[in-house]
Amino acid sequence: MTLKKPFQWALLAAGAAAAVVLLRAFHVPGAVLLGPMLVAIGFALSGAGLKLKPGIFLPVQAVLGCMVASVVSWDLLGLIADHWLTVLVVNVLSIVAASVISAVFTRRGWLPGQSAIWGLSPGAASTMMMLGEQRGEDPRVIALIQYLRIVLVTLTAIAVAGLVGARGGSAAAPPATVFLSGPVSPGVLATLAGLIAAGLAAAMATRRGQAAFWVPVIVGSGLHLAHLATVQIPVVLAAVAFGFAGAYAGLRFNKQVLLACARLLPAMLLGIVLMIAACIALMWPIQRSFAGVDALTAFLAIMPGGIDAAVAVAHGMHASVPVIIAVQVMRLIVVTLLAPRMARVVSRYCEPR
């Protein structure tokens, strides 16, 4: 592509918007995430050379943190307290499943070195790429596995939503959207701006990108629960955040990396499919524990693709967003605490003797 960068960005934005409109016309769930992702993949594979630096993704993480805080309530905390064991166990089991699958792939040499261990984690993609690179693994291979996982999980979630989402909502389902579609008060805007700014400042001060997410979650939830401020997300802001998340994942693909890893793609896809299958098996405990929760909510809750993809697909569908966020927030905590340690244990086990 020979267009100058500003025109390329403008073309990407226009293409992403058109894709969202087209997908929404066909009632495709998660259109605001999937449309920009697919268009960005097309640009990346065409050799456009467009990239979104990780720092640009921090505001998206901050908006996502506000999104989580907006649904935190005493009822949600009671829901988590009533089902904490199930939520904890299914998330730990998802990490164990990823560890077993990656250990088999590493032992059999289906993926080079120990890239499977760091690539198949059900979350914390950037952390896994960094840790894998520190242990001498090719970060391009790990990144390709991680972002292929995000795309395939999103497509699987959309397929599940299309199959079961239209059959009716769960008994626990909230209104069809958790976002503000009408006028936004100055107070809400001020609260959002403050939380996003605090998240970005904490991330830059600590040099930990996750702070951009967790500061708005913790501070926003506290303000929300204490009735000191109202945390709500305008639907336009949510759509922009989902769009950036999709474009960020899509632009991570690279034609040179894909060509270099072409022979590894079957093994990568197999590992990701096995990981998704393991999470599908974990839907059953969620449905058993949470009364009235349907298959769509259970899958979005346990899917190894992140809160942004889960909420984007749930948006407008008859899925229980509180249940999804309860399980996915616990997933973030468990993955952050356990996944790097599990990966190190498995990598030591798989080292050649």
Automatic annotation (TrEMBL):
Record protein name field: AbrB family transcriptional regulator
Transmembrane segments: 6-23, 30-50, 56-77, 84-105, 144-164, 184-205, 225-251, 257-284, 321-339
Keyword terms: Membrane, Transmembrane, Transmembrane helix
Domain of life: Bacteria
Pfam families xref list: AbrB
Keyword Transmembrane: yes
GO biological process: regulation of gene expression
GO cellular component: membrane
